[in-house]
Design goal:
The chain contains eight helices and six strands; from the N terminus they run βββαβααααββααα. With about 210 residues, the chain is of the alpha+beta class. Helix 3 packs across helix 5.
Length: about 210
């Protein structure tokens, strides 16, 4: 996931000279070769939402003179304004193909099922828990950060799929699996007090 973001992580070990040291004071040694971002680059730890990663981060923050394994993004003092890919000019098919080329198989499969529901965070989390045999938070994070969604006004975690993206994603889901997913969402509607099935999925399943 990180390799296609603005924070590509480089694995190595990171050293903190004191507890609570600022990022600019951290020393990083890459296991292999680190990207050349300049001598003044600041190491920013890149974490997965999993216990070993968080434990290492807490160790680094809480004790001086500690060195832990980590992945970091080396951020130059001033980031260039150019080179950011715009998503506005891409078709729905291009957006989905772009995501498929870089996403994990689990995240791409999850995106198809999420297109059956209203893409608000509590609904997506419900579907993720119900569909995956061993749901991993990073797979849902991949979908949210994919560019397939856009934030819309409302509570934090309120999204909408970009135009026609949901329809393209639903083509990747077998009809029988889609029907089961829609049934699951409709069963959850009374407890969540809202409609949970997307308009695109309703048209396909009825």
């Amino acid at each position: 996931m990180w390799q296609r973001t603005a924070l590509p992580g480089t694995p190595g070990s990171i050293y903190a000279p004191a507890a609570g040291a600022a990022n600019s004071a951290l020393s990083f040694t890459a296991y292999d070769s680190a990207p050349d971002t300049g001598a003044d680059s600041i190491p920013v730890p890149v974490l997965e939402p999993a216990s070993p990663w968080l434990e290492n981060w807490f160790t680094l923050l809480g004790s001086g003179g500690s060195e832990v394994p980590a992945a970091v993004a080396l951020i130059p003092p001033a980031l260039p304004a150019e080179g950011t890919a715009s998503l506005t000019g891409l078709t729905a098919e291009e957006l989905v193909l772009r995501f498929r080329a870089t996403a994990s198989p689990e995240a791409f499969g999850l995106a198809g099922y999420l297109a059956a529901g209203v893409p608000h965070l509590p609904v997506m989390q419900l579907m993720h828990r119900s569909i995956g045999t061993a749901p991993c938070p990073s797979h849902l994070a991949e979908v949210i950060l994919s560019g397939l969604l856009r934030a819309v006004p409302g509570r934090p975690g309120t999204y909408a799929f970009r135009e026609d993206v949901a329809s393209v994603l639903l083509r990747t889901v077998p009809r029988s699996s889609l029907a089961r997913t829609v049934a699951l969402l409709r069963q959850a509607e009374p407890s969540m007090r809202r409609a949970l099935v997307s308009a695109e999925a309703s048209r396909l399943v009825g």
